[in-house]
Structures are given as C-alpha cells and as structure tokens.
Write a structure and sequence with these properties.
Length: 888
C-alpha cells in the first residue's frame, strides 16, 4: 500500500541504515534495492548540499528529535534535486529511539517556479524604479503598497517613509485641467474600482508643496485581479506632461494674442489655402476693400473686385509667379476704387508655406492701405530698424521692464557685453538682482524702490555685478520711468553700461592729474630754487676756503650741508614728477643685484631675511641704473620700517609680456616686453586709504622727523619717466608687494655713461678765458668770483645780446659758459649757434636749474649731445665740468 503513495517513505535506524523504503523513494533518489546497504547520507548528499542543513539533520538524529526542511540532494545519476525531507523518531517502551520514519518529496519544480517568480519580481522592481512614468500600486482599501521614485518626485514627496491611506487622502490634492480642485471621486484610482475597468488618459495637476510648482500628468489606472476575480491591487501610472501643457498654454496665449491683434489691426490679415481654395480674413478686409471677404478664392479671382484697370491682374500675376518660382515671400502694390469713391493704395506682403517637397500649400499675409500713412510707416520702419541697429551695435545694454506684464526685455547679447557667462534661462528681474554685488544690493534696491514710489521720471545708479568667476564689474544704470496719469509707475526703460575700465581710467587720470600738478609746480620752482641754492652753496664753499674760527667753520659747514640736502630734495621731487634727466642703458639685472647686495644686506637688520629669484634668461631693462639702484634701496627701507620685529623680503625678477588682448590691464602698460621686478615683504601692510595715497609726495605714515614721504613717490616718478609702470598690492597684517614693470631693451645703450670720459680728461690749465652769460645778477656775480678764484680770466654778460656784442668787439674766449633758459628772446642754445659763427673754435658749456622736461616746451633741441652742468653745483663740479669742456 505504501508503494502507491507519491511521496517517498523511508524508515532508517539511528545509525542511518535504511530499514525500509517504498518505490516512490527509490524513484526520487534513483537508487536500487541493492544500494540500500550504503546508508542514507551516502546515497543522497553531495558537495553542494548545504552544510548548515546537514548539521541540523545530524543534530536531530543525535538528539532523537524531528526534522522538517528542504535540502539539496543528489540522485544516483548525479542529478541534483530539491528534497523536502521530514522525519520523526519512533521509541520503545523505555523511551529509546528504535528508528526514524521519514517522508521525502521532490520540490524541484516548485523551487524553480519560486526562483522564476523572484527574478520576475526583481525585474519588475527594476523597471518600476527606473521608468520615467510615476507608478503607484494601491490596495483596494486605498493603502499604498508601492510608489516609485518618479512618482515621489512628481508628487513632491520626500523620504522613504510608508504612506498610509490617511496620509494619502490628507496630502494629495489634484486639480482639474481648468484649475479647479478635483474631487476624489474623479481620481483614476476610485473610478477604476467603481467602474471595475481600466481608466485611461485622465489629465490632472498637482501643486507641489516644497516649490509651489504645478505638475501636470496623464494618469491611467489598471486593475489586478486575483484567482477569484476580485480586485487585488490597482496600479496607477503618471506621465509628466507639464511641458506639453505649458506649450499648449503658450500656444493658446499666442492664438489669443493673434486673434486680438487681428481684430484690433487696421491691416488685413488673411490666409489662403491653395489646395482647397478656402480664404479667411479679419474684419479689416471690409474696411480696406469695401466688401466682405470671399470664402473661396482661386487663381482666377486673386485680384480685388474693384482693382483699377492699370493693376487689373497685378496681384494674380505676382502671386502665381512667386508660387511657381519657389519663393517664400512676395509683395505687390495695387490701387483700388472703393464703393464710397475713395482710392486706396494697397500693399500686400505675403509668405508662402511649403511642404518638405517645396510644394506651395498656403499663403499667409497682410494687406495694408498705406495711403497718407506711407510716409509715417516708412519713418516708423526706419525708426525700428535704427533701434535694432543701435541695440545691436552700441556697447550699452538696453532693457525694458513692464510691471503690468512682468516681462523684462534686455539686449540679446547682454551677457557678452558684460563679459558674463551665458544664462541657462532667459533673464528675469530676480536673475538680474542675483548678479548684484551683495555689498551694493540693499542700497541699490532701496534707491530703485524710492524712485518708483516718488514722482521721479529718471533713475541713475552705479553699482557692481559679480560674474560666475567672482570678477566684479562696475556698471552705470540710467532709466526712464513711465507713469500713468495717477502717477503710478508701469514701465521702466533704461540702459546698463560697463564702466569698469572707465572708472579705472578716471581714477588713474585723477591721480595722474594730481601728480602732474605737483610735477608742474616742482618744475616751475626748480629754476629759481636752484639759483638760490647755487648762491648759498657757492658762498658756503668760498667761506669754507677762508681762514675761519672753528665755530664759524662749523656754521659754514652746516649751511653747506643744509643746501646740499635742499638740492637733493629738489632732485627727488623732479624724479617724482618725471622731469629728471635719466641716462638710460641696458642693465644686467643679475649683476646689478649682485653689486648692490652687500649694501642692501648691510642696511637691514639680521631679523629681516632677504631672498632673491632671477629668471635664468632675464631680459635687460632699458633704464637708468643709478635710479634703479636708488629705487631698490627705497623699497628696502620702506620694507624695513614695515617690519620692526623682523620678517622676510623677497625680490623676484622675471620676464613679462603684455599683449593687446590683456584687457583690462591693471598696470596700464602698452603691449610689449617688460622686466618685472617684484619686491615683497611680510610687514604690517597698508589699509585701502593709505594705499590710495602711497605714491603721493610728502605722504607718510611715519612719525614726524622720521621720513620725508618721498620714497615711493621717487620710485613712481622714475618708473613712469622710464616708460614703465608701478603697482602696489597690500593687505593689512599680511604684507606688501610692489611690482616695477621695466621696459625691456631691444638695442644698444641709449647713452654711454660719462664716468669713463670724465676719467680720461686732463685738468685744464688755468690761463683760459671764459665768457659767462647768466641773467640772475647774484648767480652771475658768484660764478665770476668762483671762476676768478680758480684762476680763469672771466668776462660776464647778463643776456645773449650782450654776450654777442662782446664777441663782435673782437674779444676771444676759450669757453662760453651760458645759462640755457634766459629772457630777451634768445636762449642759450641759440646764443651758442650765433657765437660759433663768430668764434668757431670756442667751446660751450651750458648750465640750468630747470628740469630737462622744460627744455622741450621751450624749443631746446639735441639735449643728449650738449654739455650741461645742473644747478646747484659745487666748486669742484664746476671746475671738473669746465676742464672737461675745454679738453674735449
């Protein structure tokens, strides 16, 4: 009877020997009766059999307990199968286990079905998680069983919390296409349950709470029934059609505007279907032509009924020719006689709509009675064209903000004109406000709002906008405020101009003008001041040559020292104003720094470390070497004063190229090659206010008596006069960097130094005759006395005319020593030329207290080739200059 059972039945001893099995067990395991001696485990367990399940079986056998579970076994043929095994112990009267009775069932097919179902479930889950439609699976009682990410996004849900029915009904509110609230009875879910059928294509909207955006979706609801035919679940899918709805709304708005425009227009707006002949036009047709528009129009009746004889077939001929030739647009003029006797001059402008094959389908156009409005329309078109051209070509950004429509229009390429990145979306008022520098934002908005609230018709403001790269751009905004009769502002039109470069130029120009004014003042007083110093210094020297008591000699020395300091101060002022005469030459930067390094190091305390870095192939700047050394010393002393407790000085020298496309150029340099000498310290730094005045003469932050305020101003004057530029970057508590941009030389030295020439000349004998020409009596008297004391024979004249008269009398001289700039209509150089005609062999030595820049304004030529002694000078300098002039 057990052989008729489909499940395998087996009896086995505690030591796993099979005592009995039915035929079903042999069929399941593939064993023969002869194999039963091998024991249960050997017969049906294999390498892939789960070790934990085997352990549970072993434990049950050892403890004499029951077991029930599934295990992977193997038939005698080696084929794997899933075995649902259950066994229980049988005991004797003493309670000892005598044997076990087991049931074996092959569940491989069931396991495969479950595996396939599990895989299918994973596949569906993957699809639902990644599909672009929202998916919600709900139980018939409204509970949400599953909601995919897209549905969460569309409904504005966050987090992974389970959504129960109460949450559903309270939180999900939907809208009808007309914007009204959709009652739950119209939800696809409830309709599908109620109608026991699939519901498709329900358009509904949902306003998300976190951003207020309305998401429009097409919804379908599908029923899933169980084996009994009852509804087990409802699947609701959402397809986001927001963009489509927005496009339709936009198109509808355009249609409404077109219809309103067509009704309001005085021009005829028409459409002709070439294939069907259908013709439609707005109300203006009757006003223009004098009769109702036809409903059907063919090639034979394209002309108006009342066209004048001369234009009888003008419209037909032009239209058919344009259609046949493949043109897209055409226009035609024709005259008509209206029923009221008036004559109309009609201009038709039309567009031909064609299919991809080029076949004409429709003609859409306008018909305008230009009449007396021809000139006005022409002027209007010209004005519009002019506006478009101006908007496209001017550097300003034009804008128009209509408060009633909320529309903001700006010149299409506004971002390019400001050098900003292209916006992702059309600019809005909020988008523009986001660009304003936070430091200017509140004041700018307050100014704008106050202008709108007041009766003002104009508004102007300057502020900064910030680009994506954090670059700040100065803009100037000018606007015209349009108001209703009640004074309410309804529209603002204006312009935005990038004034970044202009502001920099204005700042630079203002500073340059201020510095130029100081320079002009300096040059103006230099001549008279140097003449006075000449007398003081010269007489101090003469007194020093006398036999004086020690106190008197000390007083004379102090006078001379003070005069020398005054002369040095004048030279530094002239250097600042760019009126010093510089001897430019090609300078080896490495050699210059090497030569002055000991002096530089000796002038700084040990608490300050100095490092330098020079490019291996550094160019040679074309500058005055002595002035450059003085500039470096000035910068070092400034750095020392900024680091009383020690610090670091870094000197960097590298090549620098400026090109035309480097705009804006902070250093204000013209395109070319430069040597950049950068001088950095780790000192106290400068505030913005101090930095703005750093190069002004006599400006100093040092205590009284500890600085003249001419250090940086002298460096500035030297650099600008040399054709370079100076920039300063400083931050309080961090340090200062001064960048000197020196023009790189391209040829030989501009001027040879005079040191070698001065070393070669031999002292002149003291029997020479000198003609002195000086307009200042005190200076002339002093020079006469000084030269006589040096052993020269001296004749003096007060001006050029007197000097020429002396020469014409026949007196001979070895040297003409003359001031360059003198009154009387003839300067020193002109005197020299005239004197050379009288005495060709006479040498000339010039002197002047004026700066070199003044010579150009006074017509002095060939400054580089003349011998000149600058006032004030010492007796030794005069002696050497005369000796050199006579010996050359």
């Amino acid at each position: 009877m057990l052989d008729a059972v489909s499940d395998g039945v087996v009896a086995f001893s505690p030591d796993r020997q099979i005592i009995y099995c039915n035929q079903a067990f042999l069929d399941i395991t593939g064993l023969d009766r002869s194999d039963l001696d091998h024991g249960l485990c050997v017969a049906i367990q294999g390498a892939d059999t789960d070790r934990e399940t085997i352990a549970r079986i072993d434990e049950a056998l050892a403890n004499g307990t029951s077991f029930d579970g599934e295990i992977l076994n193997y038939r005698k043929s080696g084929e794997a199968f899933w075995n649902h095994l259950s066994f229980k112990p049988e005991t004797d009267a003493t309670g000892s286990v005598t044997h076990f009775i087991g049931i074996s069932r092959d569940v491989t097919a069931n396991r495969s079905t479950l595996t396939r179902f599990s895989q299918l479930e994973r596949d569906y889950e993957f699809i639902f998680e990644n599909v672009l439609a929202g998916i919600i699976i709900r139980d018939p009682d409204s509970r949400v069983r599953y909601i995919n990410p897209k549905a969460r996004e569309m409904l504005g849900l966050t987090g992974d919390t389970t959504i129960d029915a109460a949450t559903v009904e309270r939180g999900w509110q939907f809208l009808r296409p007309d914007g009204s609230v959709m009652p739950p009875a119209e939800f696809p879910f409830y309709r599908a349950l109620r109608e026991r059928a699939t519901v498709r294509g329900v358009l509904m909207g949902h306003r998300r709470t976190f951003d207020g955006k309305i998401v429009w979706a097409l919804c379908d609801a599908f029923l899933a029934n169980d084996d009994k035919g009852d509804v087990a679940a409802v699947l609701v899918s959402f397809t986001d059609v927001s963009r489509l709805i927005e496009s339709e709304q936009t198109a509808h708005a355009y249609r409404e505007r077109f219809e309103l425009a067509a009704r309001a227009s005085q021009d005829v707006i028409f459409e002709w279907n070439i294939e069907t002949g259908a013709f439609s036009a707005n109300e203006a047709f009757k006003n223009v032509y004098g009769y109702e528009p036809p409903e059907i129009m063919g090639p034979g009746n394209l002309d108006a009924r009342n066209t004048v004889e001369a234009d009888q077939h003008a419209v037909r001929d032009v239209t058919l020719k344009a259609i046949a030739s493949g043109e897209e647009r055409f226009s035609v003029d024709h005259m008509i006689n209206r029923p009221d006797g008036s004559i109309g001059h009609i201009v038709i402008r039309a567009f031909i709509v064609r299919n991809p094959q080029g076949e004409a389908l429709r003609v859409i156009g306008t018909a305008t009675d230009i009449g007396q409005l021809s000139a006005a329309l022409a002027a209007l078109e010209e004005s519009e064209t002019r506006f478009r051209i101006i908007a496209d070509t001017v550097s300003d950004i034009l804008w128009d903000h209509n408060f009633e429509t909320g529309r903001l229009w700006m010149t299409p390429d506004w971002n390019i004109k400001l050098g900003l990145e292209a916006p992702q979306e059309p600019v809005t008022t909020d988008g523009w406000v986001d660009l304003i520098d936070p430091a200017d934002l509140e004041a700018t908005l307050q100014s704008y709002r106050e202008a709108l609230k007041s009766n003002a018709t104009q508004w102007e403001r300057e502020y900064q906008v910030v680009g994506a790269d954090q670059r700040k751009i100065d803009v100037a905004v000018k606007a015209c405020i349009l108001r209703r009769p009640d004074g309410k502002a309804y529209r603002v039109l204006g312009s935005v101009r990038d004034v970044t470069n202009l502001k920099r130029q204005q700042e630079g120009y203002s500073r340059a003008r201020a510095l130029e004014a100081v320079g002009q003042l300096t040059g103006g007083i230099a001549h008279d001041f140097n003449n006075l110093l000449m007398i003081i210094l010269g007489n101090a020297e003469l007194l020093g040559m006398s036999n004086l008591s020690d106190p008197d000699a000390e007083s004379v020395a102090l006078i001379g020292h003070a005069a020398e300091n005054a002369a040095t101060l004048t030279k530094r002022l002239l250097a600042f104003s760019g009126q010093n005469r510089l001897k430019a030459s090609r300078v080896d930067m490495a050699a210059l720094l090497d030569n002055m390094w000991p002096l530089l190091r000796a002038g700084l305390p040990e608490s300050i470390s100095v490092t330098r870095s020079i490019d291996e192939n550094i160019w040679e700047p074309n500058v005055d070497a002595n002035s450059l050394e003085q500039a470096i010393i000035n910068l070092a002393m400034n750095a020392k004063d900024a680091m009383p407790n020690g610090g670091e000085i870094s000197i960097l020298c590298e090549n620098h190229v400026v090109t035309d496309d480097m705009v804006p150029n902070a250093s204000g340099l013209a395109a070319g090659r430069y040597v950049l000498l950068s001088f950095s310290d780790t000192g106290s730094g400068m505030s913005a206010d101090v930095l703005s005045k750093a190069v002004e003469p006599y400006f100093t932050t040092k205590e009284f008596g500890k600085g003249t305020g001419l250090g940086l101003s002298t460096v500035y004057g030297f650099i600008t006069q040399s054709g370079g530029s100076l920039t300063i970057h400083s931050e309080e508590g961090v340090g200062t960097t001064v960048n000197l941009y020196l023009t790189a030389g391209t040829g030989c030295d501009l001027h040879d130094t005079h040191d070698a020439a001065e070393a070669r000349h031999n002292p002149a004998p003291r029997h020479h005759r000198i003609l002195v020409v000086e307009d200042q009596p005190d200076v002339r008297s002093h020079v006469e006395r000084l030269l006589s004391r040096l052993g020269y024979a001296v004749v003096a004249a007060s001006d050029a005319v007197s000097a020429l008269a002396i020469l014409k009398e026949g007196q001979t001289f070895d040297l003409l020593y003359t001031d360059i700039i003198m009154p009387g209509g003839m300067n020193g150089q002109e005197l020299s030329k005239a004197a050379k005609q009288i005495a060709p062999r006479m040498r000339v030595l010039f002197t002047s207290g004026y700066p070199a820049a003044a010579f150009e304004h006074l017509g002095i030529e060939d400054q580089s080739s003349i011998n000149i002694l600058r006032k004030p000078y010492r007796a030794k300098e005069l002696e050497d200059a005369i000796a050199k002039a006579i010996s050359d």
